[in-house]
Amino acid sequence: MGEPTNWGTFAPPALGRILDANLDRAREGLRIVEEWCRFGLESSALTNECKELRQALASWHTAELREARDTPGDPGTELTHPQERERTNIEQVLIANLCRTQEALRVLEEYGKLYQPKMGDALKQMRYRAYALESQLLAKGRQQKLQQAPLYLVTSPNDDLLGIVEKALQGGLTLVQYRDKDADDITRIERASAIRQLCHRYRALFIINDRVDLALAVDADGVHLGQQDVPISFARKLLGASRIIGRSTTNPQEMKQAIDEGADYIGVGPVYETPTKAGKAPAGLEYIRHAAANSPIPWFAIGGIDMNNIHSVFSAGARRVAVVRAIVQAEQPMLATQYFLSQLAWLDTMGQIEGTQSESDRG
């Protein structure tokens, strides 16, 4: 690393305390993030990146800097903020510690130039890696939620839309798409912002229908595109790698194209006739069977699915479904949501049992 600057001649003793405190802060923040990458996301790549950053920081945390520490004389140990005492979900823990790490790295980059010229350059590169880590972590977390979501609510206009969405979230829903073809943009932004806040409070993903610009404006988790909307590549340039992009498909050709273009998930349907796709011929259960056999990415059967036909859709191979009227127009949206989730869980369990028995029979 080279020789450090002579403290007595070139820099005040406080410099050592600043570097020591921020090396501690950055390493602690990274360790908290690393634990979730390891045990929560089970991502060896992200875990290793956190570990490498911590070890790189440790190489700069010399005995000289540790000796500059004066915890009893540090006025900052008594300072706190109410937000530091409250963490309501994993995302808040991760974001708080990623921000702490990035802020500490910036401090180290600037003050490190006074301590050792090479330190500033090294910490600058680590800061960029921390930004990339944040994007990768957000993307991984969203993808994990998407993989684990069996039920997808697509909204339709309703005077009590917020109340309906919250009841569904209370029933266990983890994926919501805001869809309103007729509202003006001011109304869309207001409603989308309110629904996003609800979704994030309940740790659910929030997707915007069609509008990439609106998804950015309200900080949605992603966008769902129809066949006539912008190309997936265009949406990806605007949204970045960490957000989710879905595409509606009605036949095997559209499914293949969406997958080739990099969609994170696809809608498969409409399975049955539905007023939300007026004039659109249903794709039927045959397309469900095709998707079950050929789609390597998550997909949701959609279109006229309700409590009466969900078993048929599942039997055709669907393991995830998207619904509109079955929840939005239900007398009790929370109970309707719970019913769908319980049926999907039960059907999935029965399917696994049948699959195990079939394997045993073949053996």
What is the string of SSEs from the N terminus onward? HHHHHHEHEHEHEHEHEHEHEHH
If helices are DSSP runs of H or I spanning 4 or more residues, what is the number of helices?
A: 15
What structural category arises from helix and sheet content? alpha/beta
Task: Report the span from N to C terminus.
Answer: 62 Å
Residue fraction in strands: 5-15%
Strand order across the largest sheet = 1-2-3-4-5-6-7-8
Report the strand count: 8
Rg over CA atoms, rounded to whole Å, is 25 Å
What characteristic shape results from the CA principal axes? elongated
Q: Give the biggest beta sheet.
A: 8 strands, parallel, barrel
Average the pLDDT over all residues and give the rounded result. 90
In percent, how helical is the residue content?
55-70%
